[in-house]
Automatic annotation (TrEMBL):
This is SAVED domain-containing protein. It comes from the Bacteria. Keywords: Membrane, Transmembrane, Transmembrane helix. It comes from Intestinibacter bartlettii. InterPro entries: SAVED.
Amino acid sequence: MKNVYMGVFIVIIIVWIILNLIFKFIGEKETNIAKKISGLGISIIGCTIPGISDSIIEIVAKLFNVETQGISNVYIWWIFGGILIIIGIILNRDIKDRVFILNMFGIFSQLEISDVQNIHDLKISDFKVKEIIIDFVDTFKSGINDKSNELIVKKIKDECKKFSNRSKDFVSCYTGMGPIPYTILAGTYLADSKVERYFEYKRSENKYYELKNKKYRKNSYQELKEEFPTNKRINSKKVVVSISITRKVEDFDLVQFTNQDIIKLYVDNPCDNLITSKDQLYDYKEKICFCLEKIKTYYNQVETINLVASIPSCISLEIGKLISLNNNRLPEIVSYHYNNSSVPKYEFGIVVTENPTDNKKGKLIT
């Protein structure tokens, strides 16, 4: 009998391996794998349930301690099917608890979230973390031109779509340290994805922290203020929107944008890691969205918004998402990259809006 049970165990292992290989080969979703394993177990049990007469014979045989041919085999298959059902239920529960993280390496290669210390700091179960990394550090360091920009844009687009598809049924998260134009661009490809958790990198402590879910009163964090010019050039075709959250965007750094009104969004005391909660993040995002949409009411001929910003990655991604969702109501938006050692300071921009007629999204502006 012991050999029979050992044989059943070996069969289960073989079936498990074969199922995994088949589903990976055909690209089946992991949630479907769990359901099909449970379904296989139910089918095995269903196929081995005897008829009524067989059941009566077995019951009588049991009462008189009489062996009937095939009875033990039926029970073995029941055990086999039951084990598969249990495996499917456990696997399904484990899969649903998984955390998918999109991590952007753009300016320098920071630590991966799946690093042991980061897992510990963020209190995430390491076996549940699935990390997708967009790494274009080397390409960015080599200098930005049309060719390198095309490579980066394609990589961002492909990885974001992959992340959206794989994280659809799970908890999805974002972190990253990339140039603001490319982070905003990534957000435009994630408009349909619900990013539920944000991890920000704290340089001073060389570690990550998560934006809290707790709701705060608006007076518990710095207000994002808005300022339009007093004397507006209402017939302007181009305007500048500056956002100061991490650092103050100085007017003297914007001299390259000649004869353009500057609309400011700012906090009184900008600093690193200013955003600490999702409530604060969404409040800032709504104010930015409201400001961008309002521009056309003051500048009815505006064609381009030149966006310059000193902001954390979480708000960059959310800006990208709102731009994509409100694309039809906004003029062309070009997000610029700041480089303190270059002249001019904003050395290049990326078109982050989409217009089907000119297909300029992702285009490099120098």
